[in-house]
Design goal:
- By secondary structure, the protein is of the alpha+beta class.
- The chain is built from 13 helices and 7 strands.
- The chain has 2 domains: 164 residues, DD-peptidase/beta-lactamase superfamily (Beta-lactamase); 130 residues, 3-Layer(aba) Sandwich (Beta-lactamase).
- The protein has a 5-stranded antiparallel sheet, sandwiched between helices.
- The longest helix is centred in the middle third of the chain and has 16 residues.
- It is globular, with a radius of gyration of 19 Å.
Amino acid sequence: MVDELLRTAHDRYEGHDEGAVADYIPALARANPEWFGLSLVGVTGTVHEVGDAEVAFTIQSISKAFVFALACAAVGHERVHERVGVNNTGLAFNSVVAVELNGGSPMNPMVNAGAIATTALLPGADAAERWAHLQDGLSRFAGRSLEIDDEVYLSESETNHRNRAIAQLLQSYNRLDGDPAETVDVYTRQCSLSVTAHDLAVMGATLADGGVNPLTGEQVVSAEVCRDTLSVLASCGLYERSGEWLFEIGLPAKSGVSGGMVAISPGKGAVGAFSPLLDGAGNSVRAQRACAYLSRALGLNLFASARWSASQNGAA
């Protein structure tokens, strides 16, 4: 049944050509707009895939969710909340105005300002140690060693002027630990890690299963950290479209400008999707539609409910 539904979702949306490939990072502009892959991994370790589920792309902003989880695990719920915040900005993911309007607060860890501040919270005596902690942590989420796409990393490093400006602004408000340039470099590296739709589904399923990777059995983070991460994803994961997504689909989710997306159903599993054509907010068009279809077809919406029946539940 799941394989059939996954195939139906893929067939239904693979012909849709709305959106555009991201071009503000030159290396991303060369992505094939025809790529489209779906992977669904359950908390029991079941794997269902269709299309280009093993095509590699860079994780980009999806990394924000998992680095946030690592930061919460390392320094605690309270410190991350105080430093970064959890409220949606209602503005673009790379907005500088959002920081200024909120007294230097990054507002939430799913936009660039908040993600840079979150990366700076990771433990380590220097940038190299923080990077090692980050790469190891995201690899444990994926259940395999994740490596940098050097071409994308170099391309982003040459064009990340806005992120460097955001880091400097955060430092001026005492919202950033460490050197701004080094922090932005670590952040750029994390966005340049190479993953597949399969990897995203495994990583999402780890959050869905209380921090236990369903394929390796490793406890990557605690159940409490998963709760915090999924809460922020629900309210902020799709940038200024987050409210609409939650209203229509009802799943914590995160997208990235390479065309990746992960949607998570706590206690059940996660969908990893990949298609490079993006809408105006930077979210994959086909991935959103496929995840929406699967959410409805598989009954994954967190807010779906039915009238309680005493007779159905065996109550007197």
